[in-house]
Amino acid sequence: MFKNPRLKYFLFAVLIVAAIGGYYAYTEYNRRNPSMADVKAAYQLNASDVLAAFESKLEESKKMYTDQVLELTGPVKEIEKDETGFYTVVLGEAGSMSSVRCVVDSLFTDRAAKLVSGTPATLRGVCVGYTADDMGLGADLLLNRCYPAQQ
């Protein structure tokens, strides 16, 4: 079939590389994020304390907390449910303009629905950023894939 034996080995190597690449692409496409219910938090903090840290030492706090799993405890200011049924739990003191916005993982919407405004709650999620209002009217710390750990 092949007159040149090198061509046969080359085609075999290409086939092996293609199979390995296909397997890698398949596993990456089907990869899931770990559930925050099973992940240990890097930091366990009070929501108002972490907000104060960001307000006083922004750059240090960004380096320390961004892309880390945080477990924050504080009073529930508000519970928002969008038109698709996803929940965002807002933690913070009632008189404060700053808050922690926790986007709840869709696996835990039933737990988020049980939360009550004005009561303390603990949520665990990945810190993805901090946005401050330029006018000094408040700021938001953003957490994604949150798990309502305690109610």
How would you describe this protein?
- Strand 5 and strand 6 (139-150) form a beta hairpin.
- The chain has helices at residues 5-29, 47-56, 58-65, 109-113; strands at residues 43-46, 69-81, 87-91, 99-104, 120-132, 139-150.
- It has 151 residues and is an alpha/beta fold.
- Strands 2-3-4-6-5 form a 5-stranded mixed barrel.
- 32% of the residues lie in helices and 35% in strands.
- It folds into 2 domains: 1-31; 43-150, OB fold (Dihydrolipoamide Acetyltransferase, E2P) (Beta Barrel), CATH 2.40.50.140.
- The chain is built from 4 helices and 6 strands.
What is the mean predicted local confidence, pLDDT?
91
CATH class of the largest domain: Mainly Beta
Structural class, judged by helices and strands?
A: alpha/beta
Count of discrete domains? 2
Tell me the distance between the termini: 71 Å
What is the CATH T-level topology of the largest domain? OB fold (Dihydrolipoamide Acetyltransferase, E2P)
Low-confidence stretches: none
Report the count of strand segments: 6
What does the main sheet amount to? 5 strands, mixed, barrel
CATH architecture of the largest domain: Beta Barrel
